[in-house]
Design a protein that fits this description.
Shape: elongated
Helix content: 40-55%
Distance between the termini: 70 Å
Number of strands: 13
Strand order of the largest sheet: 1-11-8-7-4-5
Largest sheet: 6 strands, antiparallel
Length: 361
């Protein structure tokens, strides 16, 4: 708690105009840290999430105001109305964030201002135990609800096994089995598509000079055989919000900061098994094993699930067989190890399942 007391000891009326600075935000902390910097300002009926690089002055009384970075936050809440929030930038290098208060103080009058202040980690249990409204400071973007749900699941698994890496593996298994019926449908769809390939290739040869007729005939074939070429994409589409939600929660969650698993010292950072003396193109100074393993498994997964084709389609298939895993490997290379571990386990499970299907057929 903070108390500020103003006493007018003079014989004339004083105008109170003293800002209370919550803190300063340094924009030169590096690209990774600066992109998490945010100011949260809550008013009577709305929450504003502000970029501190832009000047701002609220026109309504605020309930509380917060500065946050990747893992920590500072929150201030006045005990009575009349305070406005502001952001003031200096030379595009730093910003000052605070509360503005204006009032008149009559001769001999005293004003006592009281504030609740929190400075610490962004852990929702701690914030909500102090003030139920402060949990709004933690926000994971578009898929906020899914992120918080996944974090609760992760915490549940972690309490069982005592390790965040194992908890992420358990979460991967949980999501895999939840989506298993759709995955099964995807596999059946792929097998039916594989059976249609000779007919489709025949249509390509027959109508190679008439693309519009070719597309029409292929669609008619799908309709006749009751095959939906897009049904195999559904499990992957459903994984997208889970992926982005997990990315936001893992990269911001202080619970995973410093959490180890096997050779990984911090699941919120790339796994960094080896650090090189000189940076290399794309990978920089760090050798990250997990994304490499993931790309290798993805290559074999594609290889055993690829539908056999001939001609131009076969050449495109061969190209995608290499480019697709390589692209994913590059995208995931500098991502948090916890996220790559989740995707690696998911890819490995899909590979095992497809290998069993392949042997069965």
């Amino acid at each position: 708690e903070l108390d500020i007391i103003f006493q007018n000891l003079s014989s004339y009326t004083l105008n109170l105009d003293y800002p209370l600075i919550l803190g300063k935000i340094d924009f030169q902390t590096g690209q990774l840290q600066s992109r998490f910097q945010e100011v949260v300002l809550t008013q009577k009926e709305k929450i504003l999430r502000l970029n501190p690089r832009a000047d701002f002055s609220s026109t309504e009384d605020l309930k509380f105001m917060a500065i946050k970075d990747r893992y920590f936050c500072s929150i201030i809440q006045p005990s009575h109305p009349g305070f406005r929030g502001f952001i003031h930038n200096f030379n595009r290098k730093e910003a000052e964030v605070g509360l503005a208060y204006q009032n008149e103080l009559l001769p001999g009058q005293e004003v006592r201002l009281n504030f609740l202040i929190y400075i610490g980690p962004q852990q929702i249990q701690i914030l909500e135990s102090a003030n139920k409204d402060w949990g709004a400071v933690i926000y994971y973007g578009t898929f906020d609800f899914i992120s918080k749900l996944l974090l609760k699941l992760l915490e549940f698994f972690q309490r069982i096994v005592g390790n965040w890496g194992v908890a992420i593996i358990m979460l991967s298994l949980f999501i895999y089995f939840i989506l298993y019926p759709l995955t099964l449908k995807q596999m059946h769809s792929m097998k039916r598509m594989q059976g249609l390939q000779p007919k489709i290739e025949g249509l390509r040869q027959s109508y190679k000079d008439n693309p519009q007729r070719l597309n029409k005939e292929i669609l008619e074939l799908y309709k006749k055989e009751k095959v939906n070429p897009f049904s195999g994409c559904l499990p992957l589409i459903l994984q997208i919000p889970v992926f982005f939600a997990l990315y936001q929660s893992l990269i911001r969650s202080i619970e995973l900061k410093g959490a180890y698993f096997l050779w990984i010292k911090d699941l919120s950072e790339p796994d960094r098994l080896i650090m090189l003396a000189k940076p290399l193109p794309i990978i920089g100074k760090e050798i990250n094993i997990l994304p490499i393993l993931m790309a290798v498994i993805m290559f074999f997964q594609q290889k055993i699930s690829t539908v056999t084709t001939v001609g131009t389609a076969q050449e495109q298939q061969r190209l995608m067989l290499v480019l697709f895993p390589l692209l994913f490997g590059v995208i995931f290379y500098h991502m948090p190890a916890g996220l790559v571990l989740y995707w690696f386990i998911n890819t490995l499970l899909m590979f095992i399942y497809q290998a069993r299907i392949k042997l069965h057929y």
